[in-house]
Amino acid sequence: MAEARVVERFRKRTIWFHWIHTAAFLVLLVTGAILFLPGLGGPAAGGLTRFIHRIAVVFFVGMPIVYFIINPRMSLHFIKETLTWGRNDVQWFSQAPDYYFGGDEEKMPPQGHINTGQKMWQFIVLGTGALFLISGFFMWFLKDALAAGVFQWFVIVHDVAFVVALLMLLVHVYLGVIHPRMTESLRSMWDGKISKTYARNHYGKWYDEVAKGKN
Ligand code: HEM
Ligand code: HEM
Q1: Which residue's C-alpha comes closest to atom 35 of ligand 1?
Q2: Residue 210 φ/ψ region, left for φ over 0, alpha for ψ in the -120 to 50 degree band, beta for the rest
Q3: Which ligand 1 atom is at minimum distance from the Cα of 143?
Q4: Nearest one of 180, 200, 30 to 103, comparing CA atoms
């Protein structure tokens, strides 16, 4: 019989946030790709694509703001966690190839609520998010006020963020959905729960605190 999944990993509101934000991101990705790739329309794409892109922006930017207002402590913790790097992370990275190709889990330094790879994804999400926001703001509201050359730079920044975010999203989805080691990942982003064994093996440092009742 499968082990009971009793450890709370994600709260309901976090799960809602993740999926609504993902939906907005995917709409931005598709409409952005239409504007970016000449084969799909590129600069000649119709106004509807640009309109939908802007509607999705409202959700993409609005969701984190709402989440921040509801959970200021958790949100600040997310930012702090994302920006705190140490020797443990270097060690994790150096052993990561072996780990992802089936190497012994015991050899990995024990992880907190997320592992170094997930922290890197969070860093990409925050970093590209800031680039999208700043460049997108200028492209949306100050197009006419900017010199054509300057405007073009913002488009390039937006495009670089697009390519980086897209490539890393593929890795994120692969790890969350397909990788044989992350057996409880997708379900945990559905009902918030993982088993004790999974928690202990993947997030040992965090699980010790949960078990002690600190979390
Ligand atoms: C903060 C959020 C964002 C804002 C404010 C924003 C805003 C904009 C604006 C105003 C444009 C120009 C549309 C036009 O030509 O009328 C644009 C284009 C584009 N956006 Fe976004 N966007 C955001 C997020 C995203 C995201 C998350 C993606 C993809 C993952 C994305 C991908 C693109 C791409 C590829 C283009 C086409 C750029 C080009 O012409 O080469 N955007 N965006
Ligand atoms: C179809 C697309 C996506 C799928 C299938 C997916 C799946 C998942 C899963 C299964 C987890 C839980 C990981 C775990 O702890 O075991 C997760 C976490 C997370 N996701 Fe997504 N996700 C998607 C899109 C996105 C997008 C677009 C963003 C951000 C713009 C995002 C940001 C995050 C973050 C920050 C976490 C927490 C850190 C981490 O576990 O990597 N996800 N996602």
Answers
A1: 32
A2: alpha
A3: 10
A4: 180
Which helix (H) or strand (E) segment is 8 a member of? strand 7-8
Q: Is the CB of 57 under 6 A from ligand 1?
A: yes
Is residue 128 within 6 Å of ligand 2 at its C-beta? no
Q: In whole angstroms, what is the distance from residue 111 CA to residue 117 CA?
A: 11
Cα 95 to chain centroid, rounded:
22
Task: Answer yes or no: is the C-beta of 41 below 6 A from any ligand 1 atom.
Answer: no
Q: Is the CB of 61 under 6 A from ligand 1?
A: yes
Residue of minimum CA distance from atom 39 in ligand 2: 118
Instruction: For domain 97-215, say whether CATH 3.40.50.720 is its number.
Output: no
Q: Phi, psi at residue 11, to the nearest 5°?
A: -85, 160
Phi, psi of 2 (to 5 degrees): -65, 145
pTM listed for this prediction: 0.94
Beta bridge partners of 193: 8
- Per DSSP, the residues of 19-49 read HHHHHHHHHHHHHHHHHH-GGGTGGG--HHH
Q: Domain boundaries in the chain?
A: 8-81, 97-215
Q: Is 165 in the pocket of ligand 1 (CB under 6 A)?
A: yes
Helix (H) or strand (E) holding 111: none
Write the pLDDT tens digit of every residue in 80-128.
999 999 999 999 999 999 999 988 888 899 999 999 999 999 999 999 9
